[in-house]
Amino acid sequence: MEVRPESVEDWCSLMPNLLEADGWHLACSVANSQLMHGSCPWGGRLIKFQLRDIRVKNAPQNAGTLIIRPEVRSLQQRNCSINGINIKSWDFIAPGEAIVHASVSCSIVRLCSVLFGDLAAQVMTCFYDDRATSVAWHQMVRRNFPTDGDSACAFWMEDAEQPYEYLILTRPQEEKEMFTVFVIARVYEDRFANWASRHFALVLRQARRTAESCLNRPGVVELRRADERFYVVLSMQSFKRGMPLVPALPGEHCVTDIDAGQPLGLRRWTRFEPDDLENPKFQLSQYIGLFVERLGFPIETFDTLDGQTLVPYQCVVRRDAWEAVRQRFNEAYPLQKTAYRHANGGSGAPGMHEDVMARFVPVAPKAWNMLEEQLAAAREPKLVVRKTFLEMQEDEHAEVGRPARRPKTLTLGRAGFRAH
Asked: Which residue ranges does the record annotate as region Disordered (predicted)?
């Protein structure tokens, strides 16, 4: 697999001038819209649309939430569809990340396919609405990056002979409800269609109409509100006297028992133990998952949100799943605090809070440079010693790729998440 960006951080790491004018060739400028192109670090060429003064009616107060998560958009496609996009199915990966199987037949996509695409390859096939065929697009949302208020989504094609990648990013302007929209896509040929320059103004106008229509389509305001409340962030206060407790199973060793838990069948309690032997540190996502499972209400918990890793004492769950178990949890958790004090002494016990602000683990700069290192390794010729001569080794089949992603374990259906 080729080296390629699979997150907004990857794009910004490989292209420090991604959202700037420097380093790009201006092809056309019409009505606060610009079409640019530039060399692509991982092969081919990049095409950039920069559309200023796009008005978004009733834009969210938090501009970083302007782009809707793919799983929420897919669930609500009948109530808030995008013209020209037919979503057939989707696979859930994590909050803010999904693989969407869809066919696309948008005017702007057809224009770009003709002007910038490889007509002999898959572009024309992928972007025409073939009812028998759908394209799998891996999508990952990122919010408030690279600057506060930015809302972005990285796209890359799954399981294709010639995969494509593109990025959509919105940035608020000083005037209320006004945004700049960036759309950056890669094409395989490292050349630009200068022969089509007379048509570039048409492409820019169509791009503006498409952006305005998509960001202001009927039902999108309600969809953004649903997206903002789709997940709930849980947080645990720090604990200083050992790991918190979970209800003990019959026959399982317990560290304490409390009479107060007898009416709910929660008399016996045992110490929580992380299930990752390589990383035995506390993770709230593991703890909450085990706690509610032993209450008889298993739910999915997550330690990432919109492409970022939460701090260990926070986790994310779907709000509808949490509301189904909240009452039972609120009855059981105070008993855990009682058992914790009884087992450890003192008056302190870890508390739980819901609907808190998400806090994320800082990303080390070297992690963003991983693709650059891989690209450098891919370009560096290998030396082979043959007796007294040094020869360049050519390997046309060598592959340089990112570490394997975790397998798809959940499918998102209309009734919710389903385990494979």
From this structure: 396-420
Cβ(321)–Cβ(299) below 8 Å? yes
Q: Indicate the pTM of the whole model.
A: 0.81
186-234 confidence digits (pLDDT tens): 887 766 766 667 778 888 998 999 999 999 999 999 999 999 999 999 9
Q: In this structure, are residues 192 and 25 in contact, taking their beta carbons and an 8 Å threshold? A: yes
Q: Which long-range contacts (CB under 8 A, 24 or more apart) does 357-365 make?
A: 357/233, 358/233, 358/305, 358/308, 358/310, 358/314, 358/316, 359/310, 359/311, 359/314, 360/305, 360/308, 360/309, 360/310, 360/311, 361/308, 361/309, 361/310, 361/311, 363/9, 363/308
CATH superfamily of 8-228: START domain (3.30.530.20)
145 Cβ contact partners less than 8 Å away, ≥ 6 residues apart? 8, 9, 12, 152
Sign of CA dihedral 290, 327, 410, 312: negative
Q: Where are the domains of the chain?
A: 8-228, 231-361
